[in-house]
Every structure is written in structure tokens, then in C-alpha cells.
What we know:
Number of strands: 6
Mean pLDDT: 78
Order of helices and strands: EHHHHHHEEEEHE
Shape: globular
Low-confidence stretches: 1-16
Oligomer: single chain
Amino acid sequence: MKSLNCSWWYTLLVNVRPIIAHRYLGIFGLPHFIYNIIFADRKLYNERRKSFWKTKNLEEICQWFNLNYEYKADLLHGFFDHDNSELEFFTTFGDCDDAALYACRALKKLGYNAKRIYMVNNTKGMQSGHVDCIVQYDAYNFMIFDYAKPIYGNTVEECMEQLCNRWYARNNYRNVQWIVK
């Protein structure tokens, strides 16, 4: 596990992906965007949004995600990856970067020092990425949100090691590079 050792894939994930996604999302994602605006379930949106922003602590945020959140890749299985708007998130949800974004927003609202952590796995030519939310909740303790299944540790490195071990059984996450932004 390495920090700040940026490969080309990692640079693409963190810096270039948002620029490409937003430029082409405007062209190819317009029908998707219009569909969401016209056909979004406003009642469901209002209910989920209201209950999400009413959360008062980390446990309630985790409970909200466990009861309501469903992973859904962005348009074309993440090719047009973008940060989902509230309308998209609360009606259709999103992928890892959206879960991290809204977890960070909710935790910051509660006064936590929360940021997104970007990760890339480079194992035997297999390259994949993940975004999560990391929280420094006091001077010596950190937590990675991991889809409302928190991982606690005394350092970011300790949390990342636990996350990689948790994921190793499923995705062969061993050679991970990461950065907090």
C-alpha cells in the first residue's frame, strides 16, 4: 500500500476523470439527465433527502445508508463517472464516489473533518479505482466509511490496511495507491 505514488491510472482517476466525464456527459448524458428531471419520483426524493439531512450522528448516517442506499454505477458502467446531484443520489443513488461525497457532506455538517480518499489498485495489470470517505474524528483516530461499514484506526495507513484486507478476499486489493483530497 502506497500513498501519493501516482501511476497514470491514478492520475486519470483523480484529476482527468471529472473533466472528461463532465464534458462528454453534457453530450451523451443529456437524455439521462432529462429523464431524471422529468420522471424522478419527487415524493421519494423529498422523503429520502429529508431523512438523510436529519441524521444527527455517525450511527444514524450509517443506518440511513444501510436502509436506503443501493450501489448503482454511473452511465455506461462508470465511463461517464460524475458526482451525482441530490436529485440523482436520492432517487437512483450512485456508485462509490457518490456514497463518499454524501457521507462526507453529512459528516462535515455534523462537524467532523471528513474528506474523500481516492484509491487505485495496480495488481498484475488489473487496474481499478475506488473512492471512499475518511474521517478524522479526534486528534488520534480515523475512520473510513466503506458503505456504512466503518473501519477504525489510529492512522490513515492503519485504516487503509484494514480496508485492503477486507477487500482482498473479494477483489485482490493488495497494491493500492491512495490520496486524500
